[in-house]
């Protein structure tokens, strides 16, 4: 029965990666071990309860036999006091017989008591191991999932052409840089065109202003000349 403990401890203490390399699913294995351990605990509980009942029964019979031994002793004394030696002998003969039975019952009771104690200790150990396995199950499941995830990622990385992806990304980056350079050049050209148009417009405006200025100067000169005449 208790060989199961060794199997469960082996699973829990072994490396998760080692378990994954096997065809067995470590989580399902542990769950199966827990079911088997639970069944063993139930059987152990029945055996322990049966032995404890046997212990109580033997103790009761032993105590009854001891009580009867004392009773026959008292009866033999009473018979002698009544001058009935034959009855006293018969009482003592039965006392001796019952005393032997009492000694046998005592030996059986002590053996049953020791066995019941051992079973209770082992049952407590089994239940403690079971609780430990339930607590470790969650940790084992998390570790197994983590190990599987790392394995899948590593396999993906090893099969993936990372250099090709890097080169492709670099080409796309250069292409975007060209787009940006073209956009900046276009903006510079537009700015240059706007500057030229502005200068030409200013020149046209200045020429008209000069014409108006000359016209006014000439008008003033004519008026001055007319006044002097």
UniProtKB/TrEMBL annotation:
| Taxonomy, superkingdom | Bacteria
Q: Region entry Disordered: which residue ranges?
A: 136-229
Segments of skewed composition (Basic and acidic residues): 170-181, 207-220
> Pfam families from the entry?
PspA_IM30
Q: Where is the composition biased (Polar residues)?
A: 142-165
InterPro entries assigned: PspA_VIPP1
Belongs to which family? Answer: Belongs to the PspA/Vipp/IM30 family.
PANTHER family registered for this protein in UniProt: MEMBRANE-ASSOCIATED PROTEIN VIPP1, CHLOROPLASTIC, PHAGE SHOCK PROTEIN A
Protein name, UniProt field: PspA/IM30 family protein
Native source organism of the sequence: Pseudalkalibacillus berkeleyi
The taxonomic lineage of its organism, from the top, reads: Bacteria, Bacillati, Bacillota, Bacilli, Bacillales
